[in-house]
Here is the input.
Amino acid sequence: VLVVDWGLARALGETPTSFTGTPRYASPEQANNQPLTPRSEVWGAGTMLYQILTGAPPYADRDPEAALAAVRAGQAPDFAALAAAPAELAAITRRALSPAAARYASVAAMASDIGRWLDGRAVSAHTYSVVDHLRRLWRGSRGLVVSVGLAVVVLAIVIITSVLNIIAARDRDAHTCTARQRPRG
Here is the structure.
């Protein structure tokens, strides 16, 4: 891959004097001519993931000037466009395109979450329900889940049978004891 920046690239921490870049892909820091941080790079990666998942860049429904104004004002992209995407990838994208304090601290942290999703593991950006956790457990460990389930059923049968046998033996003993105590006559 050859990366060409045509003079648009900025060093982290550098404060530009005027905006340069592509409005739909610019981070709020870049759009507002503020110093760039690793979180600014996360925004850029998030815009690419957004486009991969939706087929269009963030703010595609606006002209470049309106897109830049939306970024400067801190308006979130249309996250409803992510509805057809896997929930975890949509959550990663939303986190990457959040205000700076809520964004991933680095592109490596974002990449780690994407890697976890690719490996079928839970990602930090997504909130899982109990049902989601059970579904993930089932997908990842069917054999183990079935084995544990069978063990629980067998244990329940053993316990129920034992309790019923104890009750039956107690009733027999009580009946025998009562029969011995009756006077013969």
Remarks:
- Helices lie at 28-31, 38-54, 64-72, 87-96, 107-118, 130-140, 142-181.
- The longest helix spans residues 142-181.
- The chain is about 55% helix and 0% strand.
- Residues 67 and 94 are 17 Å apart (CA to CA).
